Amino acid sequence: MNERLSRRKLLNIGIFGFGTIAGTVVGIPIISYLLSPLLNPAKNAWRDVGAIDDFKVGDTVEVTLEEPSPLPWAGATAQTSAWLRRTGDRDFTAFAVNCTHLGCPVNWLQEAELFLCPCHGGIYDANGDVAGGPPPRALWQHQTRVVNGRVQVLTRGLQVA
Ligand code: FES
Questions:
Q1: In angstroms, what is the span from residue 129 Cα to ligand 1's centroid?
Q2: Does this model's pTM top 0.85?
């Protein structure tokens, strides 16, 4: 009886040991993969969004940007956008598309001159400052520049308050 118990105990220890080793061998690469965007964040990059004359002074339009991603297979998930406003001859302001509350994409309403967030009713004025709802701070802004007659926007990644 004691010999039988000790065999069973030995078998249990063997199974537990094998399970631990197998879990470690499989789990470490999976965890590394999931954490890689946090451990190796991509550097921001300038993105061309169009010729300077494509934009009318005073207009706010949505432009598409490709986020630099550490994952080469990110595909469509690396696409984002910004709200770009031409404020002068060579001056632009680019508002991040993500609400500072929980990151939903905001919409620009030209007639009302407001940014509205559809998720929880966040409202921002034309300068991106909070005008109502739960957002804790103004919309983030992207840096812009004009190079050889082309407008460029610096990516900035998803950032909420
Ligand atoms: Fe915009 Fe909540 S995510 S108000």
A1: 14
A2: no
